[in-house]
Design a protein that fits this description.
With 146 residues, the chain is mainly β. Helices cover 5% and strands 40% of the residues. The strands form two sheets. The chain has an eight-stranded mixed sheet with strand order 6-7-8-9-4-3-12-13. The termini are far apart. The protein binds zinc ion (ZN) (2 copies). The site of one zinc ion (ZN) has 7 residues, from α1. Keywords: Lyase, Metal-binding, Zinc. Pfam families: GFA. InterPro entries: CENP-V/GFA, Mss4-like_sf. One of its GO terms (molecular function) is carbon-sulfur lyase activity.
């Protein structure tokens, strides 16, 4: 599949791919992404669930269900991470209007054999409010939806 983009966790036990095509690159500043990622925001490719394929046995994945509001949306989220090395590879909403979206962690994406596909600039950032970190500049034209 030449038009697919693949990704993997740190140890390589968890591998996935998705169709190259329409995606939205978004930064999420929510407190849960901050804790989960150990950083000040998460860097996500928002893609249709129908284009996402897990290439490893499902037993490679541990799903952590975030109770309560995920991103102030009120819908629980499922954080999918490698049960060997702990790298979160994607999240998804359990309920609500966005269950057919996968939020793939861009840091786990491999593009054309090159690890760390950072060429796609984020165009949206969400949930800065209340989680603002002063030294992180705002995206020009970023949609502040939360
Ligand atoms: Zn791993
Ligand atoms: Zn988040």
């Amino acid at each position: 599949m030449s038009n697919s983009i693949s990704g993997k966790c740190l140890c390589g036990a968890l591998k996935y791919e998705f169709d190259a095509g329409e995606w939205v690159i978004a930064l999420c500043h929510c407190a849960k992404c901050q804790i989960s990622s150990g950083s000040v925001f998460s860097y996500n490719a928002c893609i249709p669930a129908s284009s996402f394929r897990l290439l490893s046995p499902p037993a490679s994945v541990t799903v952590y269900r975030t109770e309560g509001p995920l991103q102030e949306s009120g819908h629980p989220s499922l954080r999918n991470f490698c049960n060997v090395c702990g790298s979160t590879c994607w999240t998804q909403c359990e309920t609500g209007p966005d269950t057919e979206t996968r939020y793939v962690k861009m840091g786990t994406v491999v593009k054309d054999g090159q690890e760390g596909f950072w060429g796609s600039k984020p165009v949206v950032e969400v949930y800065r409010k209340g989680n603002e970190v002063g030294w992180v500049p705002r995206l020009a034209g970023g949609d502040e939806s939360g």
